Amino acid sequence: MSIKKALTVAGSDSGGGAGIQADLKTFQELGVYGMSVLTALTAQNTTGVYGVHPVPPEFVAQQMDAVLSDLGTNAVKTGMLFDSAIIETVARKLKEYGVPNYVLDPVMVAKGGAPLLLQEAVDAMKEHLLPLAMVVTPNLPEAELLTGMEKIETHEQMREAARILHEWGAQNVVIKGGHSTGDFATDLLYDGREFVELSAARFHTEHTHGTGCTFAAAITAGLASGKTVREAVEQAKQFITAAISHPLGIGHGHGPTNHWAYRAKER
Ligand SMILES: Nc1ncnc2c1ncn2[C@@H]1O[C@H](COP(=O)(O)OP(=O)(O)O)[C@@H](O)[C@H]1O
Ligand SMILES: Cc1ncc(COP(=O)(O)O)c(N)n1
Fold it and tell me: What is the main EC category here (predicted)?
């Protein structure tokens, strides 16, 4: 059996719940070999982001060269990219190495409100990364910022946003419904032909730190393992639902999800 590999290009969350740390834990749980390129360090815990220290773009490029020229990868995801210089560097390297199965998680703001992407970088993300994406996974506020739609609340508005992002070059779009209200957390997958809704019971919990990172990392791991986009997204939904449903109860704020829960359930 050949080892399947996945690369995350993202920021570090010192608290371990989101960012690079969430991604690597998810890769490990889903049986793929995890690699990482850091774009920024954050001084962060469950109560907030206390500092951001971006990595110089040249060093992001050097990390990508180191990983891709030697190990290669079966899939890649990007998370926090911070500014347009880092975005342009990452896009250039993804193209240079012809990296397959690229998942774009358009991380913009931390749950507590700290910016993880400068405003000037939104256009760069649309121009340089969206057209490379096999899957893009915005939450509702991110979908609003990317599309310019004033409000995305209803199912029809979610469909409209998905159509726009597909038209702009993403092969598949998942609009995540975590930020809406109601008894279900419903995400919408669009592949340019049909819409598929993925629904799970909404848990009334504060402990959703890192849900978006974990969900996108699970999609990436699925694609690395050879699953179709539909299969990878369905598995990711099960993974994140299990992770949210068994919170660890650590920290004094928005605690991390439980990356062990999915495999524990499988056993
Ligand atoms: N309270 C919740 N209960 C169940 N699922 C949730 C809850 N909050 C988020 N999710 C799910 O977690 C995943 C990440 O969604 P979301 O929280 O919207 O992303 P982000 O972390 O980027 O803001 C989605 O599949 C979403 O439906
Ligand atoms: C380094 C880093 N990257 C991403 C997030 C977003 O986390 P979430 O998945 O909760 O939106 C974060 N808080 N920190």
Answer: transferase
